[in-house]
Each structure stands twice: as structure tokens, then as C-alpha cells.
Amino acid sequence: MKNILSPSLLAADFTKLGQQLEQIEKGGAQYIHLDVMDGMFVPNISFGIPVIQSIRKCSNLVFDVHLMIMEPERYVEAFYKAGADIINFHVEATKSPGDVLAKIKSFGVKTGITIKPNTPVSEIVPYLEQVDMVLVMTVEPGFGGQKFMAEKMEKVTELVKIREQKNLSFDIEIDGGVNMNNIKEILSTGVNVIVAGSAIFGAEDVEKSTREFLKILQEK
Ligand code: DX5
Ligand code: ZN
């Protein structure tokens, strides 16, 4: 599976979004991770539809939307129209994950199901046939710049096994606390999509930090 970098815009300088997107694209990132928060599912509010719609015009990156909102079914169409290529939602945020997945798919958008650090893999097993991606959180969702929870990587190992047993091909994405010191170990578990916010946008030279990450991703 190809390794992919999905820098999280949450850590970017919002006064120059266009420029920051250009920098990660030049550095070789394939995706941009877009964290949408509603102040209900998580104790923070970030950005939403108008921002995504507006940056869509200046970027060819794959828009990897991470919905941290209650009842995501209410907004699938709106995020599709805003330009999402992948829509990740939390299994904990809806009563009918299967219906949300079907809805996402009906718009031709890639499906992603996400689990919080304390949610077991068993919660999403019934839906794995319907997903293009599983997103495993290694911090409590809501904020960037938190410490990586290494013990949550066991869930990745579990998912890799299930994927093999069921002969499926979904991507496995990891989100939260990734940096240059733990990236190699993370990749060795079978994750192939890496989210990194502060480690990329917090650097002085964003293009350079992107390139450094990519170099490690491509070694594998
Ligand atoms: C947290 C978000 C993450 C966050 C990651 O709720 O889902 O995507 O931006 O930030 P870092 O890489 O700084 O932990
Ligand atoms: Zn995220």
C-alpha cells in the first residue's frame, strides 16, 4: 500500500491558508486533513463548509475531511458539495453508521470511519466492508499538539489482521501526536495514511518539514 501524508490544516496559519496549502503541495503531500469540530462532539469549534469551499478553489490536494460532529448524516451532502474527496466520521457520533457510509458513497465520495482512543475496534467491525479508510485516533479529538498515545497502535495491528482475514483493502490512517521521532515506528505497524498537524505547520519552513516527512514515508 502506498504511504500518504495528510497534513492537518488545524495547525496552519489561518491568515495565509492558500500559501500554506501551496507549501505542503510543493513538499510532496498528497492529502490535506481538514478537522471539522462542532463544540458538541468535541469541546472545540474549528472551521466548516465555507472555509473548505473556498480553499477547494486553490488546491488540487485530496481533501481528507475529518468530521468531529454529532449526527454527521446531517452534513454529508454539504461537505461533498464543498469539495470533500474523503469523508471520515466518528462511529460514536451517530446511531446508524451504516446509513452514513451509504450516504457518503452515494455521492461518489470515499468513506472513512473513525474511532476515538477508548473505542474498541469491535465497534466498527460490522462496517468494514463499506469503508475505504479507517481512522484511528491517537489523541482525544478536539485539539492539535497533544501527546501521542502509543498504546493505541495495538488497534492498528488488530485492524491489519482483520483486513487480511476478510480480504479487504481499506487504508489505515492515524491522527494525533505524530512527529519525526515516532513516525518510523508508526509506519512499521501497517498504517499507510499519516496525519500530522503541529509537526508540519508548526515548523519554520513548512515545505521543508513536509519534504522531511515524505522522505521517511517513501523509504518504506
Ligand atoms: C485532533 C485532530 C487532529 C489534529 C492533529 O482532534 O483530529 O487532526 O489536528 O494535530 P497534531 O498532529 O498536532 O497532534
Ligand atoms: Zn483529525
Q: In terms of per-residue confidence, which ranges show pLDDT below 50 for 5 or more consecutive residues?
A: none
Envelope shape: globular
Question: Secondary-structure element sequence?
Answer: EHEHEHEHEEHEHEHH
What gyration radius follows from the Cα positions, in whole Å? 16 Å
Which structural class do the helices and strands define?
alpha/beta
Task: Determine the mean pLDDT.
Answer: 98
Q: Sketch the major β-sheet.
A: 8 strands, parallel
Provide a compact summary of the structure.
By secondary structure, the chain is an alpha/beta fold. The protein has helices at 17-27, 49-56, 76-82, 97-106, 154-165, 183-188, 198-201, 206-219, and strands spanning 4-7, 31-37, 62-68, 86-90, 110-115, 133-137, 171-175, 193-196.
Features:
alpha/beta, about 20% strand, about 220 residues, binds D-xylitol-5-phosphate, globular, eight-stranded parallel sheet, binds zinc ion, single chain
Characterize the structure shown.
With 220 residues, this protein is α/β, with parallel strands linked by helices. It has eight helices and eight strands; from the N terminus they run βαβαβαβαββαβαβαα. It has helices at 17-27, 49-56, 76-82, 97-106, 154-165, 183-188, 198-201, 206-219, and strands spanning 4-7, 31-37, 62-68, 86-90, 110-115, 133-137, 171-175, 193-196. It has an eight-stranded parallel β-sheet with strand order 1-8-7-6-5-4-3-2. Strand 4, helix 4 (97-106) and strand 5 form a beta-alpha-beta unit. The protein is globular. The structure holds D-xylitol-5-phosphate and zinc ion. D-xylitol-5-phosphate (DX5) binds at residues 8, 10-11, 33, 35, 66, 139, 141-146, 175-178, 195-199.
